[in-house]
């Protein structure tokens, strides 16, 4: 059986190595890119990538830009990595699973009685004791399903604004 291919994209080589080492131990094939442009080159060249792990803040082309372009052509699951975190972050609990989406409430806009999250989010899971633990492939697909059922595109100043409807 062929190993699933995961593309890890981060401008910091030590972060790529950390993620790669973990995934290789879990028996995944790992491809790496140091920026968004390189990531797209690899993504279009390799047709069987099962998952993208994208850093948000990168030179040349940031993770959100890469995510938008990939989404125009593929439904491959994507995990966004960010070092940004704030004590004021809030959580969304994914139904029937110890899975969470962390976000900053300042990134929410209200439109026509609904709330839309417009900024970066962090996905994570916890064990039975509340400790943050590694995501499984099943978790990633569950997050993908969540995003597919909650993602919308709003127009703001003639620009498409991808966001998540949270209620």
Structural account:
By secondary structure, this protein is α/β, with parallel strands linked by helices. Helices cover 29% and strands 35% of the residues. The protein is built from four helices and twelve strands; from the N terminus they run βαβαβαβββββββαββ. The chain has helices at 13-25, 36-45, 63-73, 137-150, and strands spanning 5-9, 29-33, 49-55, 78-81, 90-94, 99-103, 108-111, 114-117, 122-126, 132-133, 151-156, 159-165. It has a four-stranded parallel beta sheet with strand order 2-1-3-4, with helices on both faces. The chain has a four-stranded antiparallel beta sheet with strand order 5-6-9-10. A four-stranded antiparallel beta sheet has the order 7-8-12-11. Helix 2 (36-45) runs parallel beside helix 3. The longest helix is centred in the last third of the chain and has 14 residues, at 137-150.
Q: H/E element string? A: EHEHEHEEEEEEEHEE
Distance between the termini: 42 Å
By DSSP (H or I, 4+ residues per run), the number of helices equals 4
Evaluate the radius of gyration.
16 Å
Morphology: globular
Average predicted local confidence, pLDDT: 79
Structural class: alpha/beta
Largest sheet: 4 strands, parallel
Helical proportion? 25-40%
Estimated share of beta-strand residues: 35-45%
**What low-confidence regions span 5 or more consecutive residues with pLDDT below 50?**
none
